[in-house]
Each structure stands twice: as C-alpha cells, then as structure tokens.
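for the record, two folds in this file. i put them one after another cuz i was lazy. first one right below, seq on top, structure tokens after. the second one comes after a little note so u can tell where it starts
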Amino acid sequence: MTTREAVFPFGRRALYERNRYSPAIKSNGFLFVSGQVGSREDGSPEEDIKAQIRLAFDNLNAVLTAADCTFDDVVDVTLFVVDPESNLDAIWSVLPEYWGEAPYPTLTGIGVTWLRDRGKFMKAAVYDVEGAPGVLQYVDVPDPVAGADDVLISVEAISIEGGDLINRRSTPPPFPSWIVGYAAAGTVVAVGSKVRSRKVGDRVTAFSMQGSHAERWAVPAERTWLIPDGVDAAEAAVVPISFGTAYHCLFTRGMLRYGETVLIQAAAGGVGLAAVQLASQAGATVIAVASGTQRKNRLLELGADHVVDRVENNVVESVRQVTRGTGVNLVIDPVGTTLPASLSALAPEGRLVFVGNAGGGSLTADLWPAMQSNQTLMGVFMGPLFERPEVRASLDEMLQAVAAGRIRVVIDRIFPLANAAAAHEYAETAKPLGRIVMRP
C-alpha cells in the first residue's frame, strides 16, 4: 500500500492561511504542509524546542478545527526535526498533550513518523507538480470524509473536463498528492449532518472544483443532481459541465432567440456538442466549426445546419457566405485563441460569449471594431454558478432530456481510472469527438 505524508508546519513557517488547508482536509482526508523545527533563521538551534513544538501543534489544531476534524482524524504524520536525536525527549514530552494516550509516533534518526490506519483508503489519480499527463500517479490515499453540508459519493464515472487538463498542465497544486477533477457521477454512501435533500443510495452527478479523479468524492450536496432512471453514470457525469455550460452561454448570457443564427466554435468538444443540440432545438440556425468528415457528419446528425471545416476553410469567410454577408447573431467560443475570428464573424450588435480557454493561449483581441459595431462580449466561468437556483433547475431539465432521449451525450472513449495519465494524454492529443470518461 502506498500512503501519503502529512508534514506539519513548524516554527516561523507554522501556518500560512487557515482556509487554504481546510478544504484539503475535507476533500482528501489528509493535510500536507512543509516546515521544520529546531533552527532559527541563521540555522542555529532554537532555545526552546518545546515551546516551538507546542506552537506548531496549536496552529495545526486550529486548521483541523476549521475543517471539523481532530488529531484523531490525522492519518500519516512526518515531523522533520533538526538534530532529532538530541530533541527526542522534548518531542516525547509534548506528544501526550495533543494525542492523549499511546500509541505515539515511532521515532527514528531522521525524524518522527506515525501512522494511524483508519482502515479506509481509496485509489485516486494525484499529482505533486504540474506538467504533462505523466505527472499523474495512481495511488492509495485516505478516504475523504463528508462535512456537515456534504455527501460522500462512491464514484462510478468521471468526466475529464477541459479545466482538468489545464489545471494539471499549468496550475501548481496547493498540496502534494492533489486530486484533480471537476465532474463525476455515482451513488451516495454517506451524508453530512445538515443535508436533507440527499440520502444514502441516491444516484447523483456532481460538480466541484477538485477531487473527482478518485474512487470516492466528498462534495457539497448543493452541487449534486439526482440521476433519472435510465441514464447511465457515464452520461450523467458529462451533463453538468457540458450541457450546463452550453445552456447558460446560449440562453442566460447569450439570449438566443428563435430564428437567430449562432456560430459554435470547437463544436466537436463537450460544450460544443451540447450547444449544437440545444441551439438547434431552440429554432436557431446553427453553424458549427470542427474538422474532419466524421465530426462533420456527426454534427449534422445532432442538428447543425452548416459545418465549417476549420482546416480546409476560412471560418470568417465561410460564415459570411452562409449569412450572405451579415454575420451571426451569437457566437459561443470555448477555445479562446479564436476570439479574433469570432468577433469578425459577428453581425453588428451581435453577442459573443467566451467560456474557458481550451486553446491554451492568451486571450487577446482588437476591441475597437467591436465597439464600433455595438457588439457585446461576455465571459462565462461556471465554477461559482452551479449553486444558483436557475442553474440547478436547468441541469435537472437537461438530465430529464437525456432520460427522454431528446438530447444525446457523446462519449468518445472510456478509460479505467488506473490509466488516468493515458486518458489525459488521449484527451489532449487525439482530438476526440465528445468527452473522455474514466471508470474506477
């Protein structure tokens, strides 16, 4: 079994910010903070080791309390100590003040290590440093614990989202053994003391900012949706971000109306495929941007009126031809690097909604022509919006539409969670048609 370390802060580096650590304890079940004990700024020995150790444990206790945890919830501890052999008596004398009765940590020549096995570990895909898909490791980590407002989900399917790829590739993890992932679906196995809307046994799909790439996931109950009968967990895992984002961009922000023309960039991606279907069913003329014959045919099946192959054709010129020179009323752009083309394809007084940055480049565009044409640009980041009543209601409607067969969830390929690195590699390089899903 591979276990992960929790390294307690000591001395001058005792505590950075309480709120940074509390979510990690709640979602991952363990805490990692770097630091040391036993030296001043110049490296000379501290005069009062016991006082410094007590300060460190007092700070740790504040962090644990903020996360509704105690010292008994700590799974794995490593205390890095300068000259540990000469400080063992001091450490031994302080430990009972915080851990009560034995067993205490096992003391070694390089530090102090202690393991309290609660008997509950899970598999997860974690990373310690940002980078290519190969940074993901498939390891054992402690089970997450549901907080008072949370549910604990036994995960059955994980949707790999664009934000997961961006975070893993370019965002330094706030803690080692960081579990990435926005979206997953499964069965509720525990509920927090304040939760009334969910019960054990409910099948749910969920969104949160971190933690889905695992066998179990603790998330706020308000970020879960009940899965209707007949909807597979893999389909349900895809719905919140793909369809929830598409709906919000098209109708809440984009104000799409019957008879208007909409351009959808990256139409073969998760959000794009959802937007094509929803816009078509709303009575809009849909121009989809993709590449390749397979993608073109699939988009036409799902409701696109025109498909522009971005490799073979100039998107702006193609839009002008389709619209007889007027441009489109609305553009949905999840790519980011295509913003200049999206603006050029807009009609006067048209609306552009840009969501995400799948292209990975800088978001730059000349806004002078947009101002002269009275065009409107709107940015969307769905993360803080999922708990809004109107967003929650729209997602319930989307799940019911999937159950009724009115909209289709397109999944390109399913990987085992154990192959998370390969799944991320495929999602980034294979130009998939639809979402990539993993199963624990």
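(here's the note) second protein begins now
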Amino acid sequence: MCDIPWRQVTMTVGFGVRTADYVIPPTLRRFHIPQTSVMYFPFEVWSHIFCLLPNESPMQLMRVSRAWRDIANATPQLWTGLHICHPHQFVDSAGLLRRLEKSGELPLDVLIKVPIGFTELWPTLALLRDHVRRFRILNIDVPTYDMVDTILTLIALSADLSNGNPAPLLEELRIAIDNMVDTEDMPASEEQPYFEHAFHPSPRLRNLTVSSLRVPPPLSKLLSTVVALTIISGPDDISLSVESTLDTIAAIPHLESLKYSGYEVFSYQDTHSLDYPRVVSLPHLEVANVTVPGRGLDILQCLRAPTLRSVRLDGWRTEDYAERWNDDDYTDVSASLRRLPQRAPCIQKLDLHCIDFLRAETYNWLFNQNDFAHLEELRIEGSTITDTAFTQISTRGPRLRRLELRGCENITGSALVAYIDARKLSGNDFRLSVSRCPGVGDEHLAQLSCLVTVEES
C-alpha cells in the first residue's frame, strides 16, 4: 500500500467557489494505521465524508481524535450550516464567532429558531448582521410577529442608507411565525421598511416564504426575482383583504409556484364568480397549492394562468371547525373547480386533498367532462367519493394517464374495474395507485393489475 502524497490541497465547493489552499496539518502525515485500510483515505475523501453528516456533527467529530479535529478545522464546508435554536446558542457569541471564522468566506445556511419567551437576541444578531452578504438560505422561525420585526430591524441596522444591505448570495428566505398571535396594533406591510433594508439588493432570491401579515409590499424590490412564493396565514388574519395579497402577487413578474396555506374555513369574497372585477395575470405560473375553502381559493380564482400545469386544493385543517364544509363552502369549491379551466386551460395534474362535495354529481362531472382537456393525472385523498363517479361513464371525459386514490372509503374495486373497461384503458397508457381504500381488496388489485399498471402503495 503506497503512502499518501501529503501536499497542499485546493478544494472545490458548490456555487463555483474555490477555497484557499489548505496545508494538510502535520498530524495527518502520521495518519497511518495498518489495521484498517479505510484510515488511508486521502484528506479530500475524509473531508467529503464529514460534509455528508448532519449539521450538529462537527463538534462531535472534533472530540474523536486529533487527526479528525484537524480535518474538521481544515474543512470550511462543515461550518456553513448555522442552526441557532437553543437559548445557550443565542448568548454564546464566542462559539458562533468560531464557527463563522472556520467557514471562511463560503455561503451560509442559517436557521434562527427562537424559543418561546426568549428575548436575548442581540449577541447573535450583532455577529450575523455583518455576514448577510454570505447568506444563501435564511430560515427565521419565531413565536410572535413582533419577534420578526425585532430580528429584521436588528439585521437592517447594519445597512447603508444609500447602498442597502447587500445579500448577493441569498436564494431562499423563510420567515415563519409559530404562534401567530399578538396581532393587535401591527403596522400594515407598507409601513414595514425592514424587508428592504435587511436584504437589498438580493439578485438571486428565488424562494420566499412569509406570513400573510408580513408579506412585502407590492413595491418591494425583493419581489423582482422571486419565482416561488409561499404565504402562511394564521387564525387571526381575518382583517387581511384578498386585494392586498393580490397586489403583492401581481408584483412578482416571474412567479412560477404559488402556495397559500391558511386556517380559514370560509370564503371572504365571492371570487369564484368570473365577473369578479379583479384578475391578475401570471404568465409563468406552473404550480398552485392552496387551502380551501378560504382566502387561498379566493386568490386562485382571480388568477389568469395560461401555463398552470399542477393544482392542489387542500381541505385538511389541524383543527375540526364545526362550521366547516357547510352548504356555502361546498358550493364555492365546486363552482371554483368548474370554472378553473377557463382561466387555466392547460392543467395536467389535479390533487384534491380532504375535500368533500355535498353533491355526488361534482365528481361525476370531473370524470365525464372535457373542460380539463389536458388533465393527465388526478389524485384524490380523504374524500367521500363513491362508486357513482366511476360507473356513470360517458364517452366524454379527460384522458387520464394516472389515477391515485388515498383514504377513499366509499369506493370499491369492482367500480374501478368497470371504469377501466368503459374507458378501454391499458397498462401502456394508464397507471393506478390505491391505498387505504377498504373497498378495494387484494383480489380487486390482482384483477386490475391484469388490465393496467397498478403502482405499489
């Protein structure tokens, strides 16, 4: 077994960045243990292996041996993930400083998760705000709205009034509020300048996740490069209008993916009517995922999206509201679904998650209409859909290539067999996936697998 040619090593990392030359520490030159050949791996191999470990691993690696400590210290990629989640991490500025120094000048992935009741943020933010230029991902998870304001204001303190606070590497910004309370006396988004001052310019920002009460205003320069927007609404956002959210969405010229996750269980405005005066054109939108009923569905119905390919309507909620799924809500979702293809004619994938329609004819219509002319994949989960939707088949209907059924207790395998026979589907052009549907037994799946491709659940 030959000796390792210990020498200076130049390591190449992501983003096309080449680190400085690192001299292999002297201790590694004595890194010869005949009992196991794995110990003869060169420095680059060990360094790469260490980088595959979880973010919490560097300090554990440092305790194994002097050789491993030298490898860890000479591998700046190990120190680029900054997860600040516990009280002692917020006050241990010396530990954070060491980690920042060890990471060199590489891009940083930062998670700030503030414990409930904790307020000592200054030591940590005082160090981080000088490294905004290195942020690649910033994930802020806090218990209250005013905590968001505090963090972003402290970061913005380092901003130059004329040049801003450049974040040239920032690709993803996520700001989430766990508790979503204390909404009284909150300023409107137009009165919150810290977004602009904290991360501007940010020419590579593509993914933005914010609370519905902390959405950047329409004139925000942050929105110019965003392609994926997620809005998280809380139970106290009743005062927020659909119009204000639409104003922000309309200001994102290159938006490709929109997700709205809310608690609401009723529609705020009658936007499912096509004569609603507000229409927002999103020529690049491809994916939409909204909770229904509620503001998410209201927003979706105001969008003209000629390139929209995938739609998910999510009816699941963490709490069981007594007023949910009343007649008005059912009518709204059904009417919205029927009108959706008129402004988004190219939908190929439709996902209905935990949505119940009062009238069975809604599902019958879904399987026997040509409005979704390009629909190829349909996914239904947690629904009251019955065999009627599959047995009353006409010659019309979308040419599905894939059907996925999850947790649909009122359908049977015989109805699925009848549907496949009526549509003359074959395994070459149709795939079926069934899970947690008690009416579809093994004998039905065996029969179905002889007709089409049945995917494993």
